[in-house]
Amino acid sequence: MRAPWVLYVFCLVLWCSIACSSTDDGVGPVEQLDQEFEEEEEIFAEDEPGGEQAPSQGKESGTGLALFLGALGVLGLAVMLGRNREPARTTGTGPSREELRAQRLAKLGQLSGGIDRTFPPAPDDQNVQTSTPAVQDNGETPKPVQTMSSYTHLDKQKPISKSKPAEKLDTPTEARGKESKVTREDQPATNQSITALQAMSTDTGKVENRSVAINRETKGPSKETQKAKPKPPPKEVPLEQLLLSTLSKVFDIKVELATQGNTKAQAFKVLYLTPGELPTPGEDMVGKVVEIFDRRMRWQYDKVKFLCQCYGECEAILRDNGNEVLGTLAECVKDLVVPALLEELKGKSEEKGDLWSDGKSGNEGALYLFLSRAAGWSDDGVNVTQGLLAAMMDQAVHDKSFHPTMVKLVKVAVDRIKTVKRMDEILLQEGTMLTALDAVLSQPGMTTIMAAALDREVEEGCHNLGIYFEQKSILGTLLSLTTIVPMERYMFPSPATLPFMSLRGFPKPTVDDLRIVEQHVHEGLHRIHEVVHGTFRRMMKTHKETVLAWIAAILNMNELRTTVSPQMGQQMQAACGDGYMLNLSAVLLHLCMPIVRGGQDKLAKVDPAYSKSQPCRLNYEFETCLAGGQIVSEESKGAEKCRVPEELQGQFNFMTEIFHLTQRALNVGLIPALAHHQRLNRDIQVHLNAKQGTAEEEMVKKIQMLLVTTWDCCLNDPVFVQGVTEFYLSQSRWLQLQLDTCQQGLKETEVQRQQKRVFSQLPEFLVKDMATWFRFVVTNSMVVHPSILQGIQLSPFVDCCVTLLERPDLMPGPIPASKIVGTLLSFTESGKRKRGSQGWGTGIMTDLAAMVHTCPSVQTGLGPALLHTYVSVDVVEGLDVDKDDFDKYGSRFEIAKLLESLWQWQDCRASVLNMCGTDKFQAFLGAILDTLLYQLHDSLARLANVRKIQKAKEDEASWKALSIEEREEKQKFLTNEERVGKSFMNLANSTLGLIDLLTQSEEVCKCFTTAPLSQRSASAVIGFIGALCGPKASELKVKDMEKYNFNPRQLLLQIVRVILRIGREEALDKDGFIVSMSTDTDYSPKYMEKAYSVLVRDSVIDPTEMQQFQKMLEEMNVLHEAAVEEAPAVTPGSHLPSWVEQVEAVQLDAVVLAEKYVLALGDMRFDAAELQDYHSFQQNASEALDPRSPKVKALMKEIKQLQSNLPVHPGAAVFVRQDEDRMDMVRALVTGPVDTPYSLGCFVFDVYFPDGYPNRAPVVKLITTGNGTVRFNPNLYADGKVCLSLLGTWHGGDASEKWNPKTSTLYQVLVSIQSLILISDPMYNEPGYDGMKGTAETEEQSAKYNNKLQVDTVRWAMLHQIRQPPVGFEDVIRRHFFLQKEAVLQQCCRWLRDCRDVEKLPKLRRAVEELKTELDKLEDIADIEEEGDEDEEDD
């Protein structure tokens, strides 16, 4: 029993070694061998000659071999244990094993009629396999038996299981008729069979006479007898017998010459031929072979197996036998097998109306059986050899009728792979089919067929939706295998979710179990990527244009993914899914690896002019470029853009095309997938919070876990992450290379001009996507796999980021700049993780934060660049909030955090302080004030609303008295206010913390003492102290303030400290900070004293600071008393001016007023003026206008419309001024509609038309903001931002509300502002407030909100406009208020009577009194109407 044990142990050891050494078959770009990349570089050679080459046979995966050897070992163990358990036979208990064997052989001899010795059997006839089941006497159908012929000539690609042969019978039919267990006594027969087979293969055609050997086998000679007797010498065999023997072997049946009486005895076991039918050498030899072949084919049920076996036997004859006759016979059979096999795979057309007809073309069953054997391994040992596969493809290429069959063959394989039940068992269940598919696609002839199929897909796909390529493409099903599934499928087990749902402890599995499942999933997906990549790489040599057009068509037709982000529970029906696009991106990354790892020489060959060139096959229409402008083609190619005209082909090398295609694939595939992943995680968390404490909570937790694991499995695949990272690092080096190339031999001004020209050809998304990816890696991938990128240097990316931030002329767009800032911030904050976690980089740079802080470009250039970025995010050209994930205040929050981090380093701090006193630094400080003003006021307003709802809920009786709908609506409102209030308070704390940090420097404090920044900061500080210490401060006393990040004492302390620091650097100048605070109309000594008492009482201020604050208050009170007289106390009935009755007594004739208004101002609706030096967007107009540009043509049409259509009426009017030199710079004046808090006020807007106009909306900024201190509407910010869906700055409900290049105009924008923003109840423009309209809480709040707007309208839209009329509208302002003097004053009286806000009432009265004084001065202009008449006469 030693031999079986040794065999079992040997197989087990061999299996373990192969299983441990088997690795992923080139699954990704990072794990490929250098040798493979050297071979792949042939694709990237320029002007490479054609010539299709047969690809070398790749190494097969060791997985199948390991599993097979393992199974063999287990089988051996089972047999061995069975023998050990067999009891020893005793005399008299039954026949011995030898006796049973002798009885069985005797019975077989009787059934077969004895051994026929009239014709020597074929040398290997005892091992000939049958393709049809042999019918036995007992009616049973035996299983096919593994034979020697089935494995001696197999393709050497994979080791095949060699089953032990059956016992030797007299004929091949008898050998197939019985199954017997293999014993050790059978081994000598096997050796003799091999010896006889070798003896037959001689040049002389002599073979050994096997009659004696067969007789000796029947008697079962012992080993001693075989060793004692020498082998008989081979005898010469007649040609007739040689042909019969060969035919028996090829056609897998006993072939004999027909004699009288034996033609019907066993026809199903023997093929009888007459002497004339025997294919002897001659002219009719081929015809005879065809007839024999046809006869044999008619008997076959499994024709695929029979044909494959015939071909394999013929190849063995040609390889091992030098006989010319047998070689001719084998070639003839091979020529018959190939077309027969193709026809069998093609199938017959089914009749219409047939019950079993399914309307599908092709014999799918035969195709599947063929593929099962094409992998090089099958259960019965009959496989498709490489020769057969090549011959089939060669004939199919020349016969187009077989093209659909070959395409169907690929689809059957792909569809079979798609049916995998678990994504972690792709290789286990369908590894053989993947191997077969790779073998088919690797054939040289298949590249032509695939190219034709892809050409058809391009033609059809360009006229369909993008999802066509996932659903209908020949490779679509294969690339759609992913663990990312639609949201609704997470409720049920699926191939994507089942591997994770079956983990132990789910939904809280162990990390080790999760990593094992992910590894198995990755192995299967990597194998798929390898198959597709190999196919593309082979096709590139002869059909490069087809492959590139197919890839470009997918990317062009799926651009919708960059603009639409589905919500939870939704899916994008028109575009390919995230999993499909990620797989396609992985394949393209694999193709790009020779460029990525090829160094500067390879990158230098990538042409940056591709995106704007005519041969560009990608759709970059209206894409924003890095240096400004858009990519606009003169002629839109539409669906045919993915194809390059023949005369333009070759203008760009392959490296340029595949590099840009990969960039676009990541933009269309990867980046939207990251956005979808983030949004789904956020939505499911919100859903989970809503379900807490309910029966559905557990189910939602499971769905959340599945969502996280399935998405992370794809997005955090280590091979994929490394590939994308390497690509973007090479892109960073490529961008830097473009800058360095322009510096060769040119002057500085010329260099900058050349660099800007190059960057104006590059899409902006290159930088945005790169920054988005690295931020995801730091915040997500490195959390899942801490060492995923260990050893990769990030310095090229960091250097590139700082360079671009320093050059606003190369990257004026604030969106990519803000994304870069967010990524660098995530680098610095990654240093806060726990000790012991893996860093990013080598042993020198073990932390991302250290990498950023030690970068030379960061130390000297990043700080000043951040100042510019902070200001530039104010107004964004071409912004669409529904498309771009951009928030101005969120971006400024990240800039502030990064500045705080850099401030700790002396070099970085010095680079910022060197900017003090410059216009850029003053603009930066002003932007900080605007941000703080918005964030703090908005957060405090939200907290006041929270307090109101909390008080309402405290009164349980009143709360329960409300209807269920009212309670739900108020609870929803409360939840929204809590969320937004907490978020804004966190932003406000950060912004105020930045001001606190900056003002610790004397240089920065001095900047706050100069006008106009001193006036703006003084007004802002007074507003903050009034909100915290005024009468409305009690409304902010919410429960659990820490929950909302609200600490009023800390806020007040920081504000006071800022006041003290600035005050120390001031000498009480006229326009200084302290004087501006003291003389501000909203200054209240009472509020300042309250602030002082709170800080002293709670001991939160240093004694020294307390004394300084007290002294400053005394000085400020003196200045205030000297500048402004104290207003008398306002009592009911005395808050109206003395002239009210006189004004109200005036009777206004609306018709007459309208006629005068139109007469005086009708011709002034549109005019030209010198605006450029006073315009908010003067820096945007850096280059001269091109009179032939689409923008100029569109503006000419705009002017004609504005000249005639602008409304001019006392109740609402719009006036426009255009710059005399720049027609793309416009200023508009919009009067407030009557019966609104803006009534009769004048609101000025600056408008700029970007280079992409009319494809991009104009940029609009409000100028009437009270020096940046007044927010006139939830959609009109204090910094001038205008939120309007038509401008892309507000979330539009549908496409009709968005900017339409064909129908939208400036006229539509201005009218929308007047009618949709300047309304009677503007508070309800705030998101979440509309549902509360009509309730007691919001009605009172809305009235007080309007009172505040009325005060601001009188101050800034009336009084300030009269005193300092905006440039271009001086005459319009004078005439407007002169003609509407009585109407304005009567309106102000109504506002005074209806004012509900006691705090605002004295301020409103004071403003109205000043307004009347200014209006009375206009009466001195007696000739204002005469001027209008004179202008008409001159015309």
UniProtKB/TrEMBL annotation:
Superkingdom of origin organism: Eukaryota
Compartments, as annotated in UniProt: Nucleus
Keyword NADP in annotation: no
Coiled coil, from the record: 1401-1428
Compositionally skewed regions (Basic and acidic residues) per UniProt: 153-187, 216-237
SUPFAM superfamilies xrefs: UBC-like
InterPro entries cross-referenced by the UniProt entry: Ub_conjug_fac_E4_core, UBC, UBE4, UBQ-conjugating_enzyme/RWD
Name of this chain's protein: Uncharacterized protein LOC118417258 isoform X2
